[in-house]
Amino acid sequence: MFYSLLALVVGSLTSVQSRVNGQLSKDIHNGIAAALISFLSGWLFVTLVCILWKPDRNGLINIWKAVRARRLKPWEVIGGMGGGFFIAIQSITVPIIGVAIFTICAVGGQTISSMVLDLLGLSPSGKHKVTPVRAITAIVTLISVTIAVYPDLKSSTFRFAPIAFAITVGIVISFQQAVNGRVNVVSTRPLATTFVNFLMGSTVLIIALIIDLVRGGTIGALPTSFVVYLGGIIGVVYISVSAFTVRHIGILNMILFSVTGQLIGALLLDWLAPAAHTKVTAYLLTGTAMTLAAVLSSRLFTLNRAKKVLNNPLAQ
Predict the structure, then answer these.
(1) Phi then psi for 281, rounded to 5 degrees?
(2) What pLDDT score was predicted for residue 276?
(3) Which long-range contacts (CB under 8 A, 24 or more apart) does 215-220 make?
(4) DSSP code of residue 81
(5) CA-based torsion, 211, 86, 263, 237: positive or negative
(6) What is the CB-side half-sphere exposure of residue 49 using CA atoms within 13 A?
(7) C-alpha angle 188-248-180 in degrees, rounded to nearest 5
(8) Given 41, 191, 192, 255, which is the most exposed site by the fewest CB atoms within 10 A?
(9) Which positions ≥6 away from 158 have C-beta within 8 Å?
(10) Cα distances (angstroms) measured from residue 132 to each of 8, 93, 290, 296
(11) Interhelix angle for 81-120 vs 160-187, to 10°?
């Protein structure tokens, strides 16, 4: 249960990251540039740690040796591109279909693909069957997220291509979680894994920003408040913890608890530090409570069943 709660906590941090990055995006009038600043600041922080801390330097060496020896395939170290891809697609599709539809589609893509990836055993936690409990929990979570963002659906627009991209980016994020876990098994150091992740994500965002600028995009003056630059550090914590945690609970549980944490974090932010035009609604309260109840019940059921099987192997 410890690793599930860890996923819940780091998931809640992503709400803070979204608020911080959102403010930076508003200040400089460019979402992709804001995301790149976040990624690069996180990458520079991790680089500094890896330079100063020998165990993390050794972790990077382990990754390099594994790639050269082909114990790690090239596709296993590009997981970080998923984060860059997510930000790029989000900045393009949200203005068209709205935050609510994007969130529902992305979460839907994550939950469905995470069950498939767990079934295939792509994460280091091994194979996990698609049991009725796991399937029901995923469905309830998706319904709960839909309820939480329901008020925003009124301003959303249904368009096939952006919706397809939003679902695809959710699938990519699940894949990122899986391969980050595999890389972390080799590096044995979450920060070394995060170094590679942020490097790959920054590469995608640099390309996306160049395309944006060529098409007429602009970047405003950088704000002086240091708070808006903390998104990268929060990202480092999230990627490090998730790369370590996914090995113990699998991709689906990581995604479900992370999404639940995001809802709880959003609820607390809207209550304690509301931004302009945001408020705590009954929909957000209901969706968050439903999601939390679903994932906790599912996890407790799974742990109790595993305990019974351990005590009585014939109970399988």
Answers:
(1) -110, 165
(2) 61
(3) 217/30, 217/32, 218/29, 218/30, 219/28, 219/29, 219/30, 219/33, 220/27, 220/28, 220/29, 220/30
(4) H
(5) negative
(6) 21
(7) 50
(8) 41
(9) 97, 101
(10) 22, 33, 18, 15
(11) 80
pLDDT at 278: 66
Instruction: Say how many C-beta atoms besides its own lie within 10 A of residue 67's C-beta.
Output: 17
Helix ranges (H only) for the chain are 2-28, 31-52, 54-68, 81-120, 132-148, 160-187, 190-214, 231-272, 282-311
Neighbours of 297 (CB within 10 A): 14
Backbone torsions φ then ψ of 196, nearest 5 degrees: -65, -40
Q: Which amino acid is at 100?
A: A
C-alpha dihedral (257, 262, 265, 270), degrees to nearest 10: -150
Chain-centre distance for alpha carbon 33: 19
Kindly state the tokens that stand for 213: 């600028």
The answer to whether the CB of 195 falls within 8 A of the CB of 46 is: yes
Q: Tell me the two tokens of residue 194.
A: 């995060």
Q: What is the CA radius of gyration of the chain?
A: 19
Say if CB 175 and CB 117 are below 8 A apart.
Answer: yes
Cβ-Cβ contacts under 8 Å for 78 (sequence gap 6 or more): 179, 200
pLDDT value at residue 63: 94
Give me 307's structure tokens: 């305990």
Question: Cα–Cα distance between 187 and 1 in angstroms, integer?
Answer: 25
CA distance 127 to 233: 32
Residue 197, amino acid = N
